[in-house]
Amino acid sequence: MTKLIGVLVDSLLAGGLYATMAYGLAVIYGVMRIINLAHAGFLMLGAYATFFLFTRFHLDPFLSLVVVLPAFFLIGVALYLSIVRRLPRSGATPSMESLLLLFGLWLVLQNLAYAIWGGDTQSILTSYTMKSVSLAGVRVGVPLLLVFVASAASLVALTLFLRRTYVGKAIRAVTANRDAALISGVNADRISATAFGLGTAFAAMAGSLMSTLYAFTPDFGRSFLLKAFCIIVLGGMESAAGVALGAFVLALLENVFGAYTPIPTTFQDAISFSLLVVVLVLLPQGLPRLFARRSAPAR
Amino acid sequence: MTIRPPSRIVRPAATVVAALVLLLLAPRWLDRGTLNDLWSIAFAIVLASAWNILGGFAGQISIGYSAFLGIGAYTTALLSLKGIGPYWTLPLGALLGAAFSYVVGLPTFRLRGPYFTIATIGVSEAIRVYAAGVSYTGGSSGLRMPPGTFDFGRDYAAMMILAAAVVLLSIWIRSSALGKALSAVRQDIDAAEALGVQSTRVKLIAHALSAGIVALAGGLFAINFQYISPGSVFDFRLSLSIVLMPIVGGIGTVAGPILGAIIFSYLQIKLLSTPALRDSYLFLYGGLLMLVMLFEPRGLVGAWQRLQGLMRLPMRRAVPRV
Questions:
Q1: Rg (CA), chain B
Q2: Are B116 and A276 in contact (CB under 8 A)?
Q3: Alpha helices of B176-235 — where are they, by DSSP H?
Q4: Cβ pair B110:A222 closer than 8 A
Q5: Per-residue model confidence as pLDDT tens digits over B193-203
Q6: Which chain A residues touch B113 with a CB distance below 8 Å?
Q7: CA A94 to CA A247: how far, in whole Å?
Q8: Secondary structure E strands in A76-141
């Protein structure tokens, strides 16, 4: 029983982080129908930005979010205005050009990190890295708990932003029906720029949070990118709640496999990668589609 | 009955055969270093042209081809260690690669465009993680080929013949019924289906052909380098360059992948011999990919055709229509 509770708590905590990580991918996909492979690059750069602020200015990794989030939002907006906007607009399905362009951007970002920080494995050690507290009878690391609190707070703030502000509502409108939103007078270019900035900031935030949990290299991010895909495909790409659901399901599956099957941990990543393929093929509309009435035919 | 314009097959094929004869005679005049570079270029041409059969002709962009290279390389290495002559293992490697492409393709070809691409990244990463974790691949320490299996002259000739064969195959596919079906699938899969093209079937055939060829190249890779590890043959970077070469050169054409392969191998040779540039290949690959996507998605071949079009325009205007 304790084991089950442990698995559930771990999944919930990891799910929060996974949701933050996947949301950035989902918002860009939703608004622009672009699959942002550079997501992994921003994840990695977020970790390195936090690392830089920590080693250079002794800024606490969680406080560094105050700097990292706005900085990456601006970087995302600048990238949208300078590069992404030049692409021909994707139709109902994402275009191959956008996928490959952002793939190229990811490689450039990776090389940037190699040039600045080298290929060595880095990690952030704070005074509380090794501490843990008891939660419902389960020992939980303090960093993991803080990461969960930060991701949960970001998701709540995001939900409020999407529901209460004009820009947030416009983002949801464009995601739901681009043409109808344009006819209603939404400035698609500005919304796209905001969404790209938001997606970039969320990726960097997830990377920043991860830097307190895992060691990282410039190659960091690839396995998380695939997990993020898995999540948004599971959760359906429309809502923050769907993304959170997908994140929790993936974290739960990983932890259940880890706790109840003899599969060694080295293969754990292979589970989520295989799951990605299975889900893409079997459930292209995601889990919410299972609960909704089967109205639309599968793609 | 199809009527094939002879110039689309005969002339390119004759050029390839002439180039092959020259390259097979080259060891008489050239030193070992140059021959090594030629081997690398031919290897790149094989990978790029093979990938282009599915990625270019059929438009199914797969970023997971290192899996097939790894299967070929490991088949050759493991069977050679059992005492079988390394060249005899090549057909089996190709068959295994093709069979595996079928296993991967059957579910993933239900996905379209970018979704297919994402799924192929998932498959190849899963295989890489798996290969690094099991014992028969030698784990992270890799496998060494048995002594006495290295013969550069033979491997050089084999690679040249394979490269020529792949290019000839591409030339043939381009004008064959299969090529027409693949092209239809690329342009509009629904329209192709409506006209009676069995899209999944032709995609599977193209996938198997290209996977088998890449597995063959993997076997020759193992023989030439005498040492393989999951890090070297299942490397994501390898999957990456296999995709980038045809895209930069010109996707879906015969000349494009060859051009891309020559440029990339040349860059790689230059990069490896210049210590200051050794770590900037990602920048170069990424930057090239971005430039191509922004300015000419049809690659260098597309840029060349556009240039030709510009040159021709004034001439046409010079002759007034009556």
A1: 20
A2: no
A3: 177-187, 189-194, 199-225, 230-233
A4: no
A5: 998 889 999 99
A6: 93-96
A7: 23
A8: 132-135, 138-141
DSSP state of A229: H
Please choose, from the candidates B254, B189, B291, B220, the residue with its C-alpha nearest in 3D space to the C-alpha of residue B76: B220
Interface of B with A (CB under 8 A): 59, 61, 63, 107-108, 110-115, 117-119, 121-123, 125-126, 129-130, 132-133, 236, 240, 247, 279-283, 285-290, 293-294, 297
Tens-digit pLDDT profile for residues A266-299:
777 777 778 777 877 777 666 655 555 444 444 3
What angle do helix axes A188-210 and A142-164 make, rounded to 10 degrees?
A: 170
Chain A residues with CB inside 8 Å of B123's CB?
A: 273, 277
Q: Which residues of A touch B (CB under 8 A)?
A: 35, 83, 86-87, 93-101, 103-112, 114-115, 119, 222-223, 226, 229-230, 264, 266-267, 269-270, 273-274, 276-278, 280-281, 284, 299
Q: What is the ipTM of this complex?
A: 0.80
Find the CB nearest B113 among A94, A108, A111: A94
Distance CA B8, CA A29 (A): 42
CB-CB under 8 Å, A267 with B130: yes
Quick check: B286 and A281 CB within 8 A? no
Chain B nearest-CA distance from A105, in A, is 6
Instruction: Kindly tell me the burial class for residue A244, based on how many C-beta atoms sit within 10 Å of its own C-beta (0-12, 13-18, 19 or more).
Output: buried
What tens digit of pLDDT does each residue of A71-102 get? 999 999 999 999 888 887 666 667 788 888 99
Residues 6+ positions from A119 with CB-CB distance below 8 Å: A217, A218, B279
Of A33, A38, A35, which Cα lies nearest the Cα of A90?
Answer: A33
Does residue A146 register a pLDDT over 50? yes
Contact B119, A280 (CB under 8 A): yes
Q: Does the structure show a pLDDT above 50 at B227?
A: yes
Contact B114 A106 (CB under 8 A): no
- Buried b / exposed e along B147-171 (16+ C-beta atoms within 10 A): eebeeeeebbebbbebbbbbbbbbb
Query: How high is the mean pLDDT of chain B?
Result: 87
Q: How far apart are CA A14 and CA A248, in angstroms?
A: 8
Q: Output the CA–CA distances (angstroms, integers) from residue B16 to A88, B22, B43, B166, B265, in the order listed.
A: 37, 10, 16, 10, 19
